């Protein structure tokens, strides 16, 4: 046999032998890879091969995920509890503030406050009739409490000019309304023209108690009715005043 032919025959034999060997390696490679040795030194894994290590890591990942889910659930529960506590604290704070406000209001309404409405000009009217009409405004005051009463005290001097027996009837009012708790209306000062005289004159001190005046700004005024020809208040322009007292309402 020639040398070249011998070489070709040899190569063919080797190729035929290599085909089954390659097929066997390919078929057995996955089995050997799943059982590769795993060095667990420096880790807390118990596995000694790659496949077991992967399974163990997968279990641990699921455990961590489960723990995270549980923690998230616990956090939501705690948030709900915190919200409930905050709501309870806010409710308690609001109730405490309401009680403090009520106590402060009762305390304020149990204290009597006084103020003075001063004036010095006189007032008169010749248009006097059977019904009350406004003679003058004295001044304004602010009432603080909702359940307090108001006491007005007025000091002045009044005159009536006309025929004997005629009169002038002066009345204190708040916002144009009289002290309705008194029969016929309180806070009145009446001056008559005496017999054999052309006029009557008298100093007066008048008190009127108002139990149903709401909080806020109010106006004190003097109203007038009568039969005299002319009625005068503070003739001579002397210093006069109305004392306004706010305090506990009488039963």
- Helix/strand order: HHEEEEEEEEEE
Structural class by sheet pairing and helices = alpha+beta
Main sheet attributes: strand count, strand direction, barrel closure: 6 strands, antiparallel
**Architecture (CATH level 2) name of one domain:** Sandwich
Describe this structure in words.
The strands form two sheets. Strands 1, 2, 4, 7, 9 and 10 form a six-stranded antiparallel beta sheet that branches. Strands 3-8-5-6 form a four-stranded antiparallel beta sheet, with no helix packed on it. Helices cover 36% and strands 33% of the residues. It has a domain at 113-248: Jelly Rolls. The protein has helices spanning 3-33, 50-109; strands spanning 113-119, 123-125, 133-143, 148-161, 167-174, 188-192, 199-210, 216-226, 230-233, 240-248. The protein is rod-shaped. The chain is built from two helices and ten strands; from the N terminus they run ααββββββββββ.
Summary?
The chain contains two helices and ten strands. It has about 250 residues and is α+β, with helices and mostly antiparallel strands. The protein has a domain at about 115-250: Jelly Rolls, CATH 2.60.120.
Provide keyphrases for this structure.
36% helix; alpha+beta; Jelly Rolls; six-stranded antiparallel sheet; 251 residues; single chain; 2 helices; four-stranded antiparallel sheet
Topology:
Blueprint: H1 3-33, H2 50-109, E1 113-119, E2 123-125, E3 133-143, E4 148-161, E5 167-174, E6 188-192, E7 199-210, E8 216-226, E9 230-233, E10 240-248
Antiparallel strand pairs: 1-10, 2-9, 3-8, 4-7, 4-9, 4-10, 5-6, 5-8
């Amino acid at each position: 046999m020639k040398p070249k032919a011998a070489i070709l025959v040899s190569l063919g034999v080797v190729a035929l032998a290599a085909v089954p060997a390659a097929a066997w390696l390919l078929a057995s490679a996955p089995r050997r890879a799943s059982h590769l040795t795993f060095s667990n030194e420096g880790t807390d894994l118990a596995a000694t091969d790659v496949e077991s290590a992967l399974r163990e890591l997968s279990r641990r990942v699921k455990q961590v995920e489960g723990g995270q889910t549980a923690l998230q659930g616990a956090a939501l529960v705690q948030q709900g509890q915190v919200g409930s506590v905050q709501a309870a604290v806010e409710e308690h704070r609001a109730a405490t503030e309401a009680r403090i406000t009520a106590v402060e209001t009762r305390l304020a309404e149990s204290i009597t406050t006084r103020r003075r409405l001063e004036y010095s000009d006189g007032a008169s009217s010749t248009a006097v009739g059977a019904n009350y009409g406004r003679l003058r405004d004295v001044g304004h005051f602010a009432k603080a409490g909702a359940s307090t009463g108001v006491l007005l005290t007025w000091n002045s001097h009044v005159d009536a000019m006309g025929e004997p027996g005629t009169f002038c009837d002066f009345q204190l009012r708040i916002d144009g309304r009289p002290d309705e708790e008194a029969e016929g209306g309180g806070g009145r000062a009446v001056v008559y023209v005496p017999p054999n005289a052309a006029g009557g004159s008298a100093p007066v001190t008048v008190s009127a108690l108002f139990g149903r005046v709401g909080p806020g700004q109010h106006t004190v005024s003097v109203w007038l009715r009568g039969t005299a020809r002319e009625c005068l208040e503070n003739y001579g322009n002397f210093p006069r005043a109305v004392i306004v007292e706010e305090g506990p309402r009488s039963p």
